[in-house]
């Protein structure tokens, strides 16, 4: 089990990034959450098998059509045992 925290910058708000990510994460079978941050970035924390986490990370580097990802910072986190994947309110 691997859990990561990711902060993605660029043109990532107002382009459906969070809702598309929720769909991608659910399809990949990872659990966690995603939210907009007030500084214009998108933050996510999720866990699953290393292969499935890598699959979602690869998608995050590109994002949905209309997004332009300029940066992505990935840090490892302790597994939390989340169930499901949700879009959270901005932080």
Automatic annotation (TrEMBL):
Top EC group: hydrolase
Acylphosphatase-like domain segment(s): 3-89
GO MF terms held by the record: acylphosphatase activity
Cited Gene3D superfamilies: 3.30.70.100
A Pfam family this chain is assigned to: Acylphosphatase
Cross-referenced SUPFAM superfamilies: Acylphosphatase/BLUF domain-like (SSF54975)
Active site: 18, 36
EC numbers, comma separated: 3.6.1.7
Catalytic activity: an acyl phosphate + H2O = a carboxylate + phosphate + H(+)
Sorted UniProt keywords: Hydrolase
PANTHER family per record: ACYLPHOSPHATASE
Family, as annotated: Belongs to the acylphosphatase family.
Protein name (Swiss-Prot/TrEMBL): acylphosphatase
Native source species: Microbacterium allomyrinae
């Amino acid at each position: 089990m691997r859990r990561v925290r990711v902060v993605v910058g660029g043109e990532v708000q107002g382009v459906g990034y969070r809702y598309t990510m929720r769909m991608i994460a659910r399809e990949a079978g990872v659990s966690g959450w995603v939210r907009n941050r007030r500084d214009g970035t998108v933050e996510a924390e999720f866990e699953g098998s290393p292969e499935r986490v890598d699959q979602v990370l690869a998608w995050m580097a590109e994002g949905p059509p209309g997004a332009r990802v300029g940066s992505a910072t990935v840090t490892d986190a302790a597994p939390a045992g989340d169930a499901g994947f949700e879009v959270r309110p901005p932080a």
